[in-house]
Amino acid sequence: VQLQASGGGLVQAGGSLRLSCADSGRTFSSNAMGWHRQAPGKQRELVAGISSGTATYYLDSVKGRFTISRDNAKNTLYLQMNKLKSEDTAVYYCAASGDPYVTRDQLAYGYWGQGTLVTVSS
After folding, report:
1. What is the predicted pLDDT for the residue at 27?
2. CA dist list (Å): 14 to 7, 58, 101, 109
3. Which of 12, 120, 33, 111 is CA-nearest to residue 78?
């Protein structure tokens, strides 16, 4: 499984970015997927997750601003990020879980992309 994350960059506070994660190795339609982030000096955390169906999870601080979605036909996971804040600055990783349901347990995600940097300037 090779997950390729893209779409990061520098944006002003209040702006938007759309992250994409393409799987070139296999289909992950039966797996939960997640976008995680790690800011400098902080632990990596699950920002948004989506089950193999339609169930979603969002970190409280991004609810109403971020939207996770997936296109199984294209083997691609997305994260639409609106109203970005400086505290959203981090490296964002996409990951596939070994299970169909979303979990915040980092150990459940066995497949990780390389990360894409999101920098929000205030």
Report:
1. 77
2. 17, 19, 31, 30
3. 33
